[in-house]
Amino acid sequence: MLTIDRGTVARYARLIRANDSECNSAGSIQTQPNPPTGSDVQNQPNPPAGWEVQNRPNPPTGYELGDPGNSGPANQCEPYREIIIKSLDQGLSRQRIWQDLRYEHEADVSYDSVKRFVRSLGKSRPLPFRRMECAPGEEAQVDFGTGAWVVTPKDQPLPIGVKTGRRKTYVFRIVLSHSRKAYSEAVYHQTTENFIRCLENAFIHFGGAPKTLVIDNLKAAVTKADWYDPELNPKIQSFATHYGTVILPTKPRTPRHKGKVERGIDYVQNNALKGKKFASLAEQNLYLLRWEKGVADTRIHGTTRRQVKKCFEENEREALNPLPVGRFPSFRESKRKVGRDGYVEVDKAYYSVPPEYVGRSVWARWDSHTVRIFNHRLEQLEYHVKHEPGQFSEKPRNILEEKRSGVEQGAVKLLIKARTIGPHAGSWAESMIEQRGVEGVRVLLGLLSLSKKHSGDSIEQACETALSHGAYRLRTIRQLIKRKGDQQEKFEFIDEHPIIRPVSDYSQLVHTAFTQEQYT
Predict the structure, then answer these.
(1) Residue in 259, 247, 167, 240 with CA at minimum distance from that of residue 200
(2) How far apart are CA 41 and CA 43, in angstroms?
(3) How large is the angle between the packed helices 456-469 and 474-486, nearest 10 degrees?
(4) Of 58, 4, 63, which Cα lies nearest the Cα of 29?
(5) Are the C-beta atoms of residues 185 and 219 closer than 8 Å to each other?
(6) Closest CA to 233 of 247, 243, 212
(7) Cα(150)–Cα(363) distance, rounded to whole angstroms?
(8) Which listed residue, of 111, 292, 305, 483, carries a Cα 20 to 30 Å from 426's Cα?
(9) What is the mean pLDDT of residues 268-272?
């Protein structure tokens, strides 16, 4: 067995194919009259082309490479390449192409050969990407990259909570898709607050906001990545509404959807920040701002072939959406679950929400003065003034009537209800409140509860009697009602009634009966 490398055989096979004089019409390899032995060929400086293939134990017949990088035999469909490519352009299936080759061209090829050949064509002919260019002011692309290190000098104290003097940073970058005008800013963390602040600073730097923002699926902005219906952080949605823009996350793991900013991140990392370090984050941001104005804005862009600054000022600045009067309100936000008591906790204080949201999740937004509660559709449910830790903020409309006690209604409303029983009951209730004060509110509730078991007249008579004696205990009213109920009711007999015969009729009837008995 010859110790010949497979790559060597492939290399000489390519030479054989390139040399038409050494190949016959069928593509088989022509042999030399007296081929040298293996040892002689190895010692020659330039061994004859095709020798190693000829001296294999079983040299392949018709050995031909359809692909320079492929060391195997040529596919049976190679002679019909043009026919197959034309059929694929017409949208024919592999089964149909195989049938046409067999019956129309009398090709002795198998269906598996057609499938392999079509697959090889697909690998060698990938579909090109489509370039997307935007009108002025239509789109901006946003992404984060790795920034330069911030190294605190040894003679300066470290910030509170920082354990090391060498801190990693992230560089935020936004690129306007039409002019390639950009803005960069370094941050320590990719939080929602930092993301919003960087976007807002970029809009002010541009003098306007683009109509759409293409962002990556970073956790600071996207709570659930989905190409068809992504879920954005509610605070990010409010920010976009404030500036009149729309945020469109890219397809997960598809960086080419924001290729302009991908190249922009590489540009700022390799051109501006590579090999640099700064003493503070503010120093790095000041350097980035100067670099954007002095280097990035003055360059001739490789794709547009125009100066970035000139293209922005002439075409895109006026096309941006105008900025609102004020900045986006600064507030904190978090999801909260409503407890069984109907409250949510914010900064260790408690705020009531509508009772139908008990056990459900809501969004709380707060600043140093106010607390606002929203549902999942960002509809405001409640508004509170911010309280100190440990305090409760309750809105009366958030209390169900079933859970509202009579005491909470106050003495005024209870006295109004007592007057509906009768004038004596109302007078007794007013005098009782004057005599007993706050504790009389619960007595009023007891007086009103008597109307569920007794008639208004019995309560009215008991109140009249108790008022005449100056008795202002509920027990006295109950006893008077009970005594009146124990007395037997007396009925007065009446002499005449339309349906009752008079007594004279009965005496005449008796007299007539006795007279008839005497004569019989």
Answers:
(1) 240
(2) 5
(3) 120
(4) 63
(5) no
(6) 247
(7) 36
(8) 483
(9) 93
Q: Model confidence over 365-422: pLDDT tens digits?
A: 998 789 999 998 889 999 999 888 888 998 878 776 655 555 555 677 788 888 888 8
Structure tokens at 326: 């004020």
Class of residue 169 by CB neighbours under 10 A (exposed 0-12, middle 13-18, buried 19+): buried
Token pair 């081929």 is found at 35
The residue written with tokens 């409140």 in the block is: 433
Edge-to-edge strands, sheet with 370-374: 332-337, 361-366, 370-374, 380-385
Q: Provide the sign of the torsion angle of the four alpha carbons 409, 411, 413, 418, taken in this order.
A: positive
Sequence letter at residue 420: T
pTM here is 0.53
Distance CA 475, CA 447 (A): 10
**Joined tokens for residue 228:** 């068809």
pLDDT in tens, 478-506: 888 888 755 544 545 555 656 666 767 76
DSSP-derived secondary structure letter, 125: S
What tokens appear for 373 in the block? Answer: 């509660």
Residues 6+ apart with CB under 8 A from 61: 28
Where does 239-353 show beta strands of DSSP type E?
A: 246-249, 277-278, 332-337, 343-346, 349-352
Distances (CA, A) of 384 to 327, 330, 340, 369: 22, 17, 19, 9
Measure the CA–CA gap between 291 and 296, rounded to whole angstroms.
7
- Token representation of residue 259: 């290729």
